[in-house]
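Duplicate of #3305? Posting structure anyway:
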């Protein structure tokens, strides 16, 4: 509320108020102007203030560069991209109790350079891994711009490694190809000019969007959004209680890892066919399957899942770098006797309604609800889901230099489990980000296998009843059968504690519980 009031006051003081009711995002904010953060930015800003060393919201990427790279031209290209996108030269600070942002006119960027051309073998690779790891875990000072670091590692005259990291408060997944394309274009210009270059100016900046969003998230508009989501979620959303491999820490941690897997081409084609039949998008089917998997694994039929929305439904922001993604909360009410097809249709209805009410920030929803807070877990939902049409920049070219993405993500987890799907014309692949204080790699790999088998069942027999699906693989069924095989019958009437004592003496090294 303080931020919305500040936005209204600042607009009036600067003559920016949109009195004619035009909904267009106009370029009103200049370098040096102080404006409130967007609601999504504000949430990350508070998290960073609570935990100054937090790196869970870092966005790292690493590329292998093949060809005769000009490092000076690359540094000038980075500078041109930062000059074009005001959010990359923005600092974040507090004023009168309100978090604010300010585009800084002259931000000098320095590309850190490391020459490992005289090293080789395992020692060199260890050094590369260390440098990329340090970059991914860089702790940003949001009071100073830019919230971006980049390192160039020279392996030879024809081979380099470029590792880049941004804070999520200035970027999102949609921004990745925008940044990559602008950087490649600026590099080609800088290489030809041999001097500093400028990219074409943008019609609006992220600060314009933040101010526009704040002005519209008040009064009747905010009330309508809140009314829809509170009706959809209802009261007292049960927490998702997944079986854990370790006790949940008293305070939420962010230590994480990623398990990656891909869909077989035949399954991807079958999913597309099912989507055409049901007149829905892959997003709907993949989300429905994720809800079903979480329901089966937890034994719950009622829980919530966070869903990422790109937040780019307006033409003015499609080519901007910035943190536009919003999180919507879908309540999964799984009827045990419902078929897979029926659950997909229910998720489709929920998705269409959610798109019509996509402007409400998560923190505004949380502020309007009387949810019981638990320091050990995320409020409202503990599992996340998202779909992107592509995460690859493999075809990126810096003149005669070809860039190959070789790494991304950091060793952190913002939720218990997050499933992200990437859909490209020739393949579909996914990753599950998981909290390593709660789950082991074997558990998450098993979940990924069950998820794929659920998708296979959905495409083959969508009218199968949800509660009757067998997700076990042949190997898992064989293992269960071997555990259930009795080598000898217990003596009639022998008490259970005697049987346990006998087993302890026979196999003292074996696990007591599996």
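Output from current build:
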């Amino acid at each position: 509320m303080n931020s919305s009031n500040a936005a209204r006051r600042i607009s009036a003081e600067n003559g920016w108020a949109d009195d004619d009711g035009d909904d267009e995002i106009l370029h009103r904010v200049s370098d040096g102007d102080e404006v409130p953060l967007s609601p999504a930015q504000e949430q990350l800003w508070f998290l960073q203030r609570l935990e100054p060393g937090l790196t869970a919201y870092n966005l790292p990427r690493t590329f292998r560069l093949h060809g005769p790279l000009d490092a000076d031209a690359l540094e000038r290209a980075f500078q041109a991209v930062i000059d074009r996108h005001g959010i990359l030269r923005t600092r974040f600070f507090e004023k009168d109790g309100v978090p604010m942002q300010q585009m800084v006119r002259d931000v000098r960027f320095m590309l850190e350079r490391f020459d490992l051309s005289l090293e080789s073998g395992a020692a060199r690779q260890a050094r590369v891994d260390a440098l990329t790891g340090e970059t991914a875990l860089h702790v940003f000072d949001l009071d100073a711009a830019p919230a971006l670091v980049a390192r160039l590692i020279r392996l030879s005259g024809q081979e380099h490694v470029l590792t880049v990291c941004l804070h999520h408060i200035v970027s999102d997944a949609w921004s990745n190809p925008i940044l990559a394309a602008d950087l490649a274009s600026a590099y080609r210009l800088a290489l030809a000019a041999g001097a500093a270059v400028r990219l074409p100016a943008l019609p609006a900046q992220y600060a314009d969007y933040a101010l526009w969003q704040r002005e519209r998230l008040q009064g009747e508009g905010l009330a309508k959004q809140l009314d829809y989501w509170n009706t959809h979620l209802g009261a007292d959303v049960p927490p998702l209680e997944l079986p854990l491999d370790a006790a949940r820490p008293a305070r939420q941690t962010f230590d994480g890892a990623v398990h990656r897997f891909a869909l077989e081409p035949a399954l991807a084609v079958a999913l597309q066919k099912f989507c055409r039949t049901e007149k829905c998008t892959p997003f709907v089917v993949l989300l429905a399957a994720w809800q079903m998997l979480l329901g089966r694994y937890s034994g719950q039929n009622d829980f919530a899942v966070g869903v990422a929305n790109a937040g780019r439904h307006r033409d003015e922001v499609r080519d901007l770098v910035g943190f536009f993604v919003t999180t919507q909360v879908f309540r999964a009410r799984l009827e045990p006797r419902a078929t897979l097809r029926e659950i997909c249709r229910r998720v489709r209805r929920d998705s269409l309604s959610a798109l019509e009410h996509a402007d409400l920030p998560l923190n505004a929803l949380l502020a309007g609800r009387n949810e019981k807070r638990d320091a050990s877990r995320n409020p409202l939902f503990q599992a996340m889901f998202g779909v992107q049409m592509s995460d690859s920049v493999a075809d990126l070219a810096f003149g005669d230099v070809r860039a190959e993405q070789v790494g991304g993500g950091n060793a952190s987890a913002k939720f218990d489990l997050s499933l992200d799907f990437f859909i490209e014309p020739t393949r579909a692949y996914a990753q599950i980000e998981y909290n390593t204080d709660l789950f082991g790699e074997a558990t998450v790999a098993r979940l990924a296998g069950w998820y794929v088998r659920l998708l296979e069942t959905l495409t083959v027999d969508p009218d199968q009843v949800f509660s009757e699906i067998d997700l076990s693989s042949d190997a898992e069924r064989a293992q269960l059968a071997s555990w259930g095989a009795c080598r000898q019958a217990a003596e009639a009437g022998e008490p259970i504690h005697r049987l346990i004592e006998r087993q302890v003496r026979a196999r003292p090294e074996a696990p007591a519980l599996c």
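Confirmed duplicate; merging threads. The first helix runs from residue 2 to 13. The domain at 235-475 is CATH 3.30.559.30 (Chloramphenicol Acetyltransferase).
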